[in-house]
Amino acid sequence: MTGAAIRRPVVILISGRGSNMLALIERSRAADSAYRVAAVLADKPDAAGLRAARDLCIPTEALAAAGEGRETYDRRLAAAIARHAPALVVLAGFMRILSAPFVEEFAGRLLNIHPSLLPQYPGLHTHRRVLAAGDKEHGATVHFVTAALAAGPAVIQGRLAVEPAEVETHLAARVQALEHEIYPLAVRWFCEGRLRCHDGKAWFDGAALDRPIQLADADRE
Ligand code: GAR
Question: Which domain range does residue 77 map to?
Answer without folding.
Answer: 1-106
